[in-house]
């Protein structure tokens, strides 16, 4: 038989990375993408390649992924726009600095040295244009940024070159298991079947799970981003803050990208997003307070991208607790881009050998109250199920 | 938050006509315009032009009358509020709250209906060398003439086609520019093809106007070269000459023009339904006979809905205003129909010649799809036609994907200059119709605003 051995739902970075790693292992893979590749978070992300400030459970994966990023060209055949610019989190008060120092101490106790506290003078060597009130910060020097869309397409191309099939415009509307195969029907009437199903449907992941009777609590956010006109180079690393949401970087073109967690409005049904102007203004104010040099710079684009968010702000990665042959990898809560190169490999391990050597217990699909549990749904911004 | 029945963006012919009509129907109207004075592009700065002989004719006669009537409708305590030097930069289409930038501060305003009267923009003409200093759009040169009385010195070449090339040639010659050469890019046989489109009798008044212009241009010594293809601009650091298949000419200034296209930046950013118009080789919003779009909040009038010229624009502006009153319950259905009828008749007359003009001045294929891979397509990011073709081969299926991939359209012009070219290049490379490649979806802000201006927005609810 020549049908696929694995069906991957979702043509974002995680689905394409999974397809790539499966194809490398010689598996016949078919990716079903509802729209076009990297249509949502994978195309709209700010593209931070960040180990800095990760939840402890994510650190091992983030560090392994970072090694892959440093040789991404060997992996997928192009550099994906990756630049090891470093990432910095600024401390705007003594209290902020204490938070960072405590975190650094805790990390050291766990054997991690990738995050490093710097004092006010050290910080200004990294960020000469930073506002005077900033008292120090934390730096992860091997971190950086990349182009999310280019990265996603590069994984897709590499997967195709290894024989993976990628079908765009294939929106899954029904799923079920018959005769040992997962059968998916798409909106155009086509049927797809394979023994293994990978759910990499991003913010739509919980909907796909529900199609097969599995309830996983998932909300979504429409994270907003702004891009300015070119300005003279004034900041190299990607910048965040300790006690307020902001993410900030200057590309090689001189354009500055401002993002970091302020939410617009989105619809899972249409995929459409809209800006929340007041919250956008709040982001602009934060950026301006950190870098007064921005005042006269023109904002040329602002947008919002839909991203799945879980109640504990950690992704869903792992085999289904309910069904055989189902592997979930979705709901990355706005910080999944950096993990892409390694999560695909984890999915491939789970799909081909049934286990992984990476620590993923914290991401178990069943952690919210049993495989078929309703979950608490607490703190979900906009329910995405 | 201020509140209006109708906000009109653009104080050109369509916007002015719509505002006057809406006010006469008792609607409260806010007219936003980026320019310091009414007129739009076609009648730009018409109030200040006085009786400048270079601009004599329809520009001064009709344009000044329109602006005068519009000003008269702005009497104190009246229903029309006119806000010049104001930029619409965001619309929350679900709530009808619009964000307007004026004098360095942003304000949010609630509207019951929004009329986009954003007019036309010049079709970008991406020939090799079009980004050299000294090369610019003919429309841009006309703006300089209208607002600053600026007349380029030295040998000047106008290259392209369309009524504006002749009008501008005449205006520049009257103003003392020279010598002026017109390189006409129209295809052989276009005239006969155009005759078959008909409309010549109904449109005879416009046609007569055009013929008079051609006569005056020739009398004033305009040199005309016809059938020009494969045009390129060359020079060290600036334009010094133009070359074409079978000829070349030294010049200090090159004014390019291949007609105008609807300015659909805002309507596309709002996600309204658009279709590719093969006759006019441009995107246009899908509109009903009242100018209503696919969204209940928004209507479009004037050239922004399809190129028709200023007389058609005033008619569609009036019709859209009548529809706004009807939708807001201020005008019964039958009364709306009755009131719109004369404007529909004027519209039909104004558009009669359009199929003829569209065929006569259809841009050559290479205007939409530059042949030379080295030709710059996106001026802001200096992206070439070859890079766009490469992105298409690598999987970019339309201009939105190319934007994410190449950053084409992410510069300060926000894709106004490259959006259509990128779509056409990708469509050609993939062997699909342009309509299938899709229109570039611009993002807010519709016009750039500074970080400082955005940060100064009064915050009501965000902690």
UniProtKB/TrEMBL annotation, chain A:
MF terms in GO: oxidoreductase activity
Pfam families the UniProt entry points to: DAO
This protein's GO CC annotations: cytoplasm
Alphabetical keyword list: Oxidoreductase
Domain called FAD dependent oxidoreductase: residue spans: 6-350
Protein name, entry field: Sarcosine oxidase subunit beta
Automatic annotation (TrEMBL), chain B:
Keyword Oxidoreductase (UniProt): yes
Keyword set, alphabetical order: Oxidoreductase
Cited Gene3D superfamilies: BFD-like [2Fe-2S]-binding domain, FAD/NAD(P)-binding domain
Domain FAD/NAD(P)-binding: residue ranges: 4-317
SUPFAM superfamilies registered for this protein in UniProt: FAD/NAD(P)-binding domain
GO function term, MF aspect, one: oxidoreductase activity
Residue stretches making up the BFD-like [2Fe-2S]-binding domain: 376-427
One Pfam assignment: Pyr_redox_2
PANTHER family found in the cross-reference section: ANAEROBIC GLYCEROL-3-PHOSPHATE DEHYDROGENASE SUBUNIT B
Protein's UniProt name: Thioredoxin reductase
